[in-house]
């Protein structure tokens, strides 16, 4: 029997979900109220990442810094700048969890609005080199088949439709199957994804914006950036939905 591709399964599931939405309006992924994938009340409660921040990694700091102590410990320099749109607090935390683990791909569009808002900041317009192509952080084929979709890819596609940049999900591949990063410390996360990614030759000479959902220690984004730099990428930036809401870095 011929195996059905995960992408076809996802498209069929999406069509079925759209049909069901006409009969049964979707529930908010954060509070469960009927009407939209993310209701306006929950959407407005997301907490933005406020200054001061580290201008390199985007983490909140106690005072303005061009490089925080956490950045100083990182050996990789491929990733020039990272920004997160909001803090990983309720109700955005619940929305991201449902989006990733509870089969709610319909949340991609409302969640991508946070990325668009963050990308409209003046600092993105003044970058040199400027962003040319958006590349979502990939899932391994087994994980994608299990989940039915790659949440970072859906975010990137919705983001690109709003900002007019091309989305190239095939420019990065996760060729090593790794255990989930949840529950691992910073060193374990770094070891878990080291050399897990490979970049296509098309990245050579291009400036990329990597898209992911949550920026915790940055190990996944850095591993993707390392692969892209090895393949000749000119510049690499990162943009995520959320970062942890812990205390500010000194």
Based on the model shown, name its key terms.
250 residues, single chain, two-stranded antiparallel sheet, 4-stranded parallel beta sheet, Rossmann fold, 10 helices, 14% strand, alpha/beta
How would you sum up this structure in a few lines?
This protein is of the alpha/beta class. The chain has helices spanning 6-23, 40-43, 69-72, 92-101, 108-119, 122-125, 141-147, 151-163, 186-193, 219-230, and strands spanning 81-87, 133-136, 172-174, 197-199, 207-214, 235-243. It has one domain: Rossmann fold.
Describe the structure in your own words.
With 250 residues, the chain is α/β, with parallel strands linked by helices. The chain has a single domain (46-243), classed as Rossmann fold. It is 37% helix and 14% strand. It has ten helices and six strands; from the N terminus they run αααβαααβααβαββαβ. The strands form two sheets. The protein has a four-stranded parallel beta sheet with strand order 1-6-5-2. Strand 5, helix 10 (219-230) and strand 6 (235-243) form a beta-alpha-beta unit. Helix 5 crosses helix 8. It starts with 5 loop residues before the first helix and ends in a 7-residue tail after the last strand. The model has no long low-confidence stretch (mean pLDDT 86).
List strands and helices in order, with pairings:
Blueprint: H1 6-23, H2 40-43, H3 69-72, E1 81-87, H4 92-101, H5 108-119, H6 122-125, E2 133-136, H7 141-147, H8 151-163, E3 172-174, H9 186-193, E4 197-199, E5 207-214, H10 219-230, E6 235-243
Parallel strand pairs: 1-6, 2-5, 5-6
Antiparallel strand pairs: 3-4
């Amino acid at each position: 029997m011929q195996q059905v591709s995960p992408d076809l399964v996802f498209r069929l599931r999406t069509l079925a979900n759209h049909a069901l939405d006409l009969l049964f309006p979707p529930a908010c992924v954060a509070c469960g109220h009927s009407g939209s994938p993310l209701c306006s009340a929950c959407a407005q409660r997301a907490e933005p990442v406020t200054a001061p921040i580290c201008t390199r990694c985007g983490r909140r700091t106690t005072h303005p810094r061009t490089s925080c102590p956490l950045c100083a410990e990182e050996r990789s320099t491929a990733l020039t700048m990272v920004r997160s749109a909001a803090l990983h607090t309720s109700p955005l935390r619940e929305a991201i969890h449902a989006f990733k683990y509870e089969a709610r791909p319909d949340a991609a569009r409302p969640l991508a609005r946070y990325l668009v808002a963050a990308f409209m900041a003046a600092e993105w317009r003044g970058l040199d080199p400027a962003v040319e192509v958006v590349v979502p952080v990939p899932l391994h084929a087994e994980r994608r088949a299990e989940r039915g979709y790659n949440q970072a890819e859906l975010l990137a596609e919705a983001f690109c439709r709003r900002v007019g940049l091309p989305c190239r999900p095939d420019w990065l591949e996760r060729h090593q199957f790794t255990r989930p990063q949840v529950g691992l410390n910073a060193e374990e996360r770094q070891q878990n994804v080291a050399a897990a990614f490979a970049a296509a030759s098309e990245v050579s000479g291009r400036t990329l914006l990597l898209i992911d959902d949550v920026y915790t220690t940055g190990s996944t984004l850095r591993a993707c950036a390392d692969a892209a730099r090895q393949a000749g990428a000119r510049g690499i930036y990162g943009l995520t939905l959320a970062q942890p809401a812990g205390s500010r870095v000194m």
